[in-house]
Amino acid sequence: MASPEPGTAPLHPQPPDLRQRIGRRVLLSLVLIWGLGSTVVLGVGNHFVAEAFDRALLDDAHALAAHVRGGQAADPPGTPLQLDLTPREVGLLRFDQSETVWFAVYAADGSFIAGDSHLAPGVVAAGSSHAFSHLSQDGREMRRATLQIAGPPSFTVVIAQTTAERTQLLRRLLVYSGLAQLWLLVVLGSWLLRGIERDLHPLGALQDAMDQRDAADLQPLPPALTQQASTSDVQRLGVALDGLLARVQQSLHAQREFAGNVAHELRTPLAGIRAQAAHALAHNDPAVWRSEIEGIAQAEQRASRTVDQLLALARAAEGGIALTLQPLALHTLVRDVLLRYLPRADALGVDLGAEGLDQAVVVRGNIALVEGILNNLLDNALRYGRGTPPRITVALHTEPGFGVLRVTDNGPGVDATLAQQLQQRWAQGDQGQRLGHGAGLGLAIVARYVQLMEGRLELAAASDTTDGSGLAASVWLPLAPNAPAPSSTLPTTP
Question: Is residue 317 part of a domain?
Answer without folding.
Answer: yes
